Amino acid sequence: MSKFVRIVGAAAALAVSLFGSPAFAATEITFYYPIAVGGPITKTVDSYAAAFQKQHPDIVVKPVYTGSYQDSLVKAMTAAKAGNAPDVAVLLSTDMFTLIDNELIEPIDTIAASAADKAWLKSFYPAFMLNSQSGGHTWGVPFQRSTIVQYWNKDAFKAAGLDPDKAPASWDDMVAFGKKLTKREAAGQVSQWGLEIPSSGFPYWLFQALATQNDAILANESGTKVEYNGARVIEAAQFFADLGQKYEVMPKGIIDWGTTPKDFFEGKTAIMWTTTGNLTNVRQNAKFAFGVAPMPSKLRGGSPTGGGNIYIFKNNDKAKEAAALEFARFLTTPDMAADWGIATGYVATRPDAWNTETMKKYAADFPAALIARDQLKDAVAELSTHDNQRVTKALNDALQAVLTGAKPAKAALDDAQAEANRILHPYQN
Amino acid sequence: MRNRRLNLQLQGWLLLLPAVVLLATFTHVPAVSTIVDSLFSTPQGRRPAAFIGLDQYRTMLADPIFWRALNNNLLYALTTVPIAIGLALVMALFVNGRIKGRAALRLAFFTPTILPMVAAANIWLFFYTPGYGLIDQVGRLFGFGAINWLGNTATALPALMAVTVWKEAGFFMIFFLAALQQVSPDLYEAAHMENASRWQIFSRITWPLVMPTTLFVAVNALINAFRIVDQVIAMTGGGPDNATTLLLFYIYQVAFSFWDTGYAAALATVLLTVLGVVSLAQFFLLDRRIHYR
């Protein structure tokens, strides 16, 4: 199949080069981007491309919306294997090792060599650079980055006799508050849950917050080893399952990522954990007073970072790589970072973005926007390894087995560790 | 004379050519190259593919997710195919009789078939949503609590099966309806003269005479059961804990999420073999017991 794809790709590339070459000498670059939160995002991105073009008449940017993060990676890699890679793309920061191993991306620091470029690469929050650097190189530029935060329904807190201005600050609080907030009807049905932590699709990310709070790190920096079955990790997984099975403050089984915000708006849950990227969505749709809080703590506080970086794909045409770099720099100026943060809820990626006038005004008006940023000091790198999709799937499967009661925590995580060891073995020498 | 015959032969081949080219390009060549690819390792970066014989198949034997997917798929086929066929036949018998609103009923039974799978999957996603989904709303009237259909390992696969049955039964009904209308009324009249019971009429006349259609539908349904992928992607993503991972979905995941193309080729070869065996077995074993006019 791969050969066939390559031939078709080559034929298509030939056809493009024969018939599609523009009459003038503008450099044309393709930009793939995903959407993972609510709102009219495509419009915003198109307007960014248009604004860039005004500043750089010699570069033409073609933005291409490529679906979810998962779809976007599939599309970018398929296109690249057919010899038709995008020039620049926003993909998960955790896909870095996969992109490096497939030799698809250029280290940013080899293209961005001037003093101004070097200063630019140092201008981002260090927590976001953890998932952007490896082997002494910088491979991705932070763009739409996030942390996990708690959203809570102040009206529901008041009704349950809790202080509406205090979110759970510890694991014990989560259970105690949850018990007060969970409302049962006479027949035993639950009309309001205390808490929802989504567990469909990519439960590893939200679980990583629990593991972090229990002071466990899941992977090493070079992405060649994971620790899925340490005592503290098992304890965190057990607590995750206990919230539903033992304390009964969270629905049992798998909680869908996509419907969790809806459950929150509908009053089906009083607290939810989700990305700060949903902040603007919650602000527009919650019909009650709500609060945003940093993660609770056990041995420590903290959350993994998440979200997407800008990658520059390898290209023999150095003019395209340079144009892609120019575009990446444009998207990450303090003003643009502030604008993007306000449009979505993602954390503006550099400290000086928070000193712009628009951002100051926005934060004064809506202090909840500051929570995710302030949590960065406690943030850890998101789980990311070589052969990332497969290694995280092992953990996802184990977590879902624990949450559905199919396996005890230790057995499930031992299995996941064995599977991860098998996959990572070739990278460990 | 000889020249003319040659001409005729050439003409024949020329007429076949478009079909042969299309079939070869999109079916036979990919199938053969899949089998060949499954004997090589997955190329990565600068490391090209190397011949590794049956290594991929050995990995497969030790891969619990593969066995889970195969198991799920067999369960899926063995549950949905008989239910869908039975339901289709009942619906066809129902709308074949003289009843009021027959056209509307036929249309209603057929509607699920015209919906794209992704749309159907989204409708059912709403049905299954715990708390405010349709099933839970109806259940609440009778005092049942919220059930997390797609979030439990025990209920997720049956929940997907229901979608397949719902979607396919109407389609198969059309075939049965056509078959029922082919049955000669003389036979029924003769049966009535003999005072045959309804069950006797069904088991001695209708059922044997629609048997060829049943076989045709069964082969198609079985093959469809192994080709299901869209509703898995739309509804569960294979979770929880691989409870709804079916073979084709696993192949997609290995090929396009993990980029382990060699292993994906080996899995695809297994799927090809399963499908080949299924259709051969059905044609050779069942052929003998089928009444053809």
Summarize the structure in words.
The complex is a heterodimer of chains A (429) and B (293). Chain A has 19 helices and eleven strands. Chain A starts with a helix and ends in a 5-residue tail after the last helix. Chain A has 429 residues and is an alpha/beta fold. In chain A, strands 1, 2, 3, 6, 7, 8, 9, 10 and 11 form a nine-stranded mixed sheet that branches. In chain A, helix 10 packs across helix 11 and helix 18 packs antiparallel against helix 19. In chain A, strand 4 and strand 5 form a beta hairpin. Chain A is globular, with a radius of gyration of 23 Å. Chain B is mostly helical. Helices cover 75% and strands 0% of the residues of chain B. Chain B is built from 13 helices and no strands. Chain B is flat, with a radius of gyration of 24 Å. At the A-B interface, helix 1, helix 3 and helix 18 of A face helix 1 of B.
Give the helix tally of chain B: 13
Provide the helix percentage of chain A.
40-55%
**Largest beta sheet of chain A, briefly?**
9 strands, mixed
State the end-to-end CA separation of chain B: 40 Å
| Inertia-based shape of chain A | globular
Instruction: Please compute the radius of gyration of chain A using only Cα atoms.
Output: 23 Å
Oligomeric state of the chains present here: heterodimer
List the helices and strands and how they pair.
The complex is a heterodimer of chains A (429) and B (293).
Chain A: H1 2-19, E1 27-33, H2 41-55, E2 59-65, H3 69-81, E3 88-92, H4 96-101, H5 108-111, H6 115-121, H7 126-129, E4 133-134, E5 137-138, E6 141-153, H8 154-159, H9 171-181, E7 183-184, E8 190-196, H10 203-213, H11 231-245, H12 260-265, E9 269-275, H13 279-285, E10 290-293, E11 305-312, H14 318-331, H15 334-344, H16 357-365, H17 369-374, H18 388-403, H19 409-424
Parallel strand pairs in A: 1-2, 1-3, 8-9
Antiparallel strand pairs in A: 3-11, 4-5, 6-9, 6-10, 6-11, 7-8
Helix pairs in contact in A: 10-11, 18-19
Chain B: H1 2-37, H2 55-61, H3 64-96, H4 102-114, H5 117-128, H6 134-141, H7 153-182, H8 185-193, H9 198-209, H10 211-226, H11 230-235, H12 247-256, H13 261-287
